[in-house]
Amino acid sequence: MTDPVDVLIVGAGPVGLLLACELARDGAAVRIVERSEKRTYFCKALGITARTLEIFDSLDIAEAAIDAGLWLRGIHIHQDGKLASTFDLPIDLAAQGLPYGTLSLAQFEVERILEDCLVRHGLSVEYGHELVGFRQSASNVDAVLRGPAGEQALRCRWLVGCDGAHSAVRHELGVAFEGDRYPETFVLGDLDLSWSLPRGPMHRFNRSAASNGGATSLAVVPIAGAANRYRLSMIVPEGVTLSSDTPGLDELKALMLPLLPQGADLSSPRWSSTYRVSHRLAARYGVGRVFLAGDAVHIHPPVGGQGMNTGLQDAHNLAWKLALASRGAAGPVLLESYEAERRPVGLDVVANTTKAMNNVLAQHAELPGFRETQLLIGYRDSTIVRDDRPDAGVARLAAGDRAPEADGLTRPFVGHAERLHRRLGRGRHVLIGHVGDCEQLDQLADLLDHLRKALGRHAEGVAIVAADSKIIANERIPLLHDSRGEFSARYGVTSGTAWLIRPDGHIGWCSDRPSASGLEAYLRLIR
Asked: Strands of 216-222's sheet, edge to edge?
């Protein structure tokens, strides 16, 4: 048997890679295995939401993702050859309170960027290694892997299945994958498209049943890397039979060109595939010391590009909990909160993408909204958040919510402003307080000392004061001025209020009269 590790991750797609990156960064002993011999370069998932880019920022890979991607500037819907509706995103999102737009970034690029990040944290993917089976006890999971050198036994404290819709881990656990599959067949192509329409928006071309060729819908999304590169996804019309699961260029042209504007042409096919769309949700997100994430627990229609993003956010939620547990700073209650917090999100995504898919099939034009940014996902009902304010139930911002961004924070002798989110995440709990006098500043510094005794180097803090405040920093906690008033506006500031931000960027605890006893009551929730 090889040396034991804290976490064995099965599957090195985006979800497994993100989980491995965060755990390795936070000091956990991790192995990540992938049964494929090498990475593939198929353009499967594509869109990256604003919330996922915030997570990438906490891993210091947001810039790499943005440089490799292409901003989606909106959506244009065409019905029977005519433009029916448009939704164009403004270039300046700051006025809308949005941190990022939606990025077109192919799944293989996401994997490349995450794998580079993993290597920087001293870990690499073990390709060609397949999970044969596992057994768990009260304290460990004993797994068997099959690789180039044959079978090997491995002991880990926890095992996470990030191994896709046909998850071997889920099957071994006996967890039901409840749902159904659409009868329609879809065809996907990664090709060059020559046409006169603007590059930037996603285009959807609907053809009604009364039109020649029958009812269908074709989605066209730009892919970064070449000026004419696009991913085209189409519902195969009723009565049409494809020659293979990987149709060639001539067959793709025959299917797709009739829906595209006159003069359009397709060339340079890189990859094509046929697929069926399902909507399923696992009955459990984990059993004992074994957890599931990503497509292993939820699959749904690709409308809105929510799938890969939801899986990445599963991993982000689970990572900090496993990291705390691996250090002995948390117990089973915290790990059980993974399912309690993420399964309702999965249920909501499956339900809403299924509704959106039904609208596509019925050719009802539906334009994206704020929901698609995934910035609204929150955990107010979670058992591991605590809000000690009397008006918490009606507050615009409460424990469980995503901590908003705030820009324009300044400090003496530094010639540039900073963003609040640059201080959040990165495997740490961060205490934020808005202070109005030196006494409140000292009290906040005392709270930070208490937090550090509990969490060590994985605890940080910052005090924020009004732009014109004359308070002098006391050297025990950093002090920033809210020079643009963004923090005050977005956090609904009352002087003396403190927020404790979890490593996943959500508010774990909030109090307008913060005290060591209140903080300790929160910490007991996660121990």
From this structure: 82-88, 74-79, 202-207, 216-222, 229-235, 177-194, 265-282, 298-299
